[in-house]
Write a structure and sequence with these properties.
Elements lengths: L6 E2 L10 E3 L5 E2 L5 E5 L7 E14 L4 E12 L3 E4 L1 H4 L4 E18 L12 E2 L7 E3 L4 E5 L11 H14 L14 H9 L2
Parallel strand pairs: 3-11
Antiparallel strand pairs: 1-9, 2-4, 4-7, 5-6, 5-8, 8-10, 8-11
């Protein structure tokens, strides 16, 4: 009720449901697909799925970088399969440090808000009214399980490489053919 009259709308609260796959020990590898399966939530007319993934990789040119992926989608079924190329583009040569994946699924009842959608609030009001149930997120591993992971030196390695490249021209190499370290460059500049 409001000063202008009475607005009304009705939805059903979706029941609880469970994410069945992947389980929390699942490791998404470079050559595998990701299949997400959850139980049906009675009263749900659609589901909203959100997924995020991150990992460190070496590309086909030998450079190391971090890959981050986030996507949400609306689905009417309880199964969604992602092809391996969705998470591992062709330029990813190898995973250098495992990462994490997170899945969130919401069971929804009420209209989806899309261009041209009609609301479900009537009489002396208008708009969209929905009921949403989320049982909790599901985490999984990407590349390597936690037990197999080594502490990452990736950001420091990359920073040192950038420093060395900036301070040492290609013609200025040490005896082993490697670029001098930052300390060698500073010493060289102070004591030529």
């Amino acid at each position: 009720k409001h000063r202008g009259g009475t607005a009304q709308g009705a939805v059903f609260m979706p029941d609880d449901f469970s994410i069945l796959q992947p389980d929390t020990s699942y490791v998404l590898k470079k050559d595998s697909v990701l299949q997400i399966i959850w139980s049906n939530a009675n009263g749900a007319t659609w589901y909203w799925l959100d997924i995020s993934i991150d990992y460190w990789y070496e590309d086909t040119l030998g450079e190391e970088d971090e890959y981050e992926f986030w996507m949400d989608t609306i689905i009417y079924d309880t199964v969604l399969t992602y092809d391996k190329n969705r998470f591992f583009p062709p330029y990813v040569d190898s995973i250098t440090e495992g990462g994490d994946g997170v899945i969130n699924i919401w069971a929804c009842n009420g209209p989806i808000i899309l261009p041209g959608s009609e609301g479900n609030i009537f009489d002396d009001g208008y708009g969209f009214f929905r009921a949403i149930n989320q049982p909790g997120e599901r985490n999984f591993y990407v590349g390597l399980p936690v037990k197999s992971r080594k502490p990452s030196a990736s950001p420091n390695k990359k920073l040192n490489r950038l420093r060395n490249d900036r301070l040492a021209p290609i013609s200025n190499r040490n005896r082993q053919g490697k670029a001098p370290t930052l300390c060698e460059n500073i010493t060289r500049k102070l004591h030529p």
